[in-house]
Write a structure and sequence with these properties.
This protein is an alpha+beta fold and 124 residues long. It has three helices and four strands, in the order H-E-H-E-E-E-H.
Length: 124
């Protein structure tokens, strides 16, 4: 009985470490995506100041691909999860609409259009 409990204990410790790793990877991925979106916003804002205002069009704004993700060990993932992860890496985002800055709490995040999980992981 104690041998089985010891095995369960190690399995739960391993699961806890994996979950902590996933959490840290998501924080890093969010920070990198947010930083890239803010850089795109600043670039678009500087370009808008230098150029005359464009005529209105029905086409969406410029898009960009996500930066290359950190290497992730997917050997324990389900096939569906791996496919969704790869799909998220190929997703294009429009340039941010604005940047929300609250200096008192040290917050600086891009504002993107949309409310899906992928968008909300990278911006507000």
């Amino acid at each position: 009985m104690s041998r089985m409990l010891r095995g369960l204990q190690w399995a739960l410790i391993g699961l806890g470490l994996v979950l902590i790793g996933v959490f840290i990877a998501s924080l890093v991925h969010r920070a990198l995506g947010s930083r890239m979106a803010m850089r795109d916003f600043e670039t678009a804002r500087e370009a808008a100041r230098a150029a005359p205002p464009p005529l209105p069009t029905a086409e969406p704004g410029p898009t960009r691909a996500l930066p290359v993700a950190l290497p992730v060990d997917t050997t324990l993932w389900a096939q569906g999860r791996i496919e969704k992860y790869r799909e998220s890496l190929n997703h294009d985002f429009a340039a941010p609409l604005a940047i929300l800055r609250i200096p008192k709490i040290g917050l600086e995040v891009p504002v993107l259009d949309g409310t899906d999980d992928l968008t909300l992981n990278r911006a507000v």
